[in-house]
Amino acid sequence: MIDSGDTAFILASAGLVLLMTPGLALFYAGMVRSKNVLGTILQSFIMISVISLEWVYIGYSMSFGPDVGGFIGDLSWFALNGVTSEPSADYATTIPQNVFMIYQCMFAIITPALITGAFAERMRFSSFLVFSLLWTILVYNPVCHWIWGTGGWLGARGVLDFAGGLVVHLTSGAAALAAVFIIGPRKGYGKESFMPHNLPMTLLGTGLLCSVGLDLTAAPPWQRTG
Of 211, 201, 213, which Cα lies nearest the Cα of 28? Predict the structure, then answer.
């Protein structure tokens, strides 16, 4: 049965999580040189478009669709087939499933955007798009299913992740560390000046990320106990 309060809470939370992506764009853009500000900002903003499309067509189904061996969801919800305004029996039983899908999409958007700080100023935009799309499909979606998806092997063993510390931050952090080792430092590092472009911009982004993050520390309605 749909609860209007829970639905409003999740819709508001989805908006706040979406706000974190522009906040992240400001945070990173303030720390690069002026010639790379636009490219750095677009690396975050383009994820809103690219990952939203990926999520609608295959991402949501891979992450939360019917389980396949505890590893991944099948594609029976391809292009949101069967995802309606009715509550799901497995997820968020007091809100429409399409609202739950939108809320989870916001986390899928910001996760690859988080990685961009590791290779700021030294990856081609086209290469970044290909990497982000493939990484979301091959890494984020399976890990999301492992922990948050019904039947996922980690969730079945009692692993809980209320705020994305594992699904979002651990996966993006590991990818960022790997990117640092593979891509290496910026050309001229240690020889040229790499002064930040605009630290007030970084501070503004930090404020958005922190304030929204604090608002989202409460467990979603379907994960509350007691």
Answer: 201
In a domain? residue 164:
yes
Structural domain span for residue 37: 4-216
What CATH code is carried by the domain that includes residue 13? 1.10.3430.10
Assess if residue 46 is contained within a domain: yes
Q: Establish if 222 belongs to a structural domain.
A: no
- C-alpha 133/C-alpha 37 separation (Å) is 22
Task: Decide if 185 contacts 179 (C-beta within 8 A).
Answer: no
**What is the tally of structural domains in the chain?**
1
Q: Give this prediction's pTM.
A: 0.91
Would 226 be classed as within a structural domain?
A: no
Report d(CA 219, CA 28) in Å as an integer: 28
Q: Closest Cα to residue 176, out of 201, 139, 208?
A: 139
Separation between Cα atoms, residue 183 and residue 176, nearest integer Å: 10
Per-residue pLDDT in tens (0 to 9) along the chain, 226 residues: 899 999 999 999 899 999 999 999 999 999 999 999 999 999 999 999 999 999 999 999 999 999 999 999 999 999 999 999 999 999 989 999 999 999 999 999 999 999 999 999 999 999 999 999 999 999 999 999 999 999 999 999 999 888 788 999 999 999 999 999 999 887 777 777 788 989 999 999 999 988 776 655 544 555 543 3
Quick one: CA torsion of 146, 138, 52, 23, rounded to 10 degrees? 80
Task: Determine the residue type at 172.
Answer: S
> Of 85, 26, 77, 35, whose CA–CA distance to 56 is shortest?
77
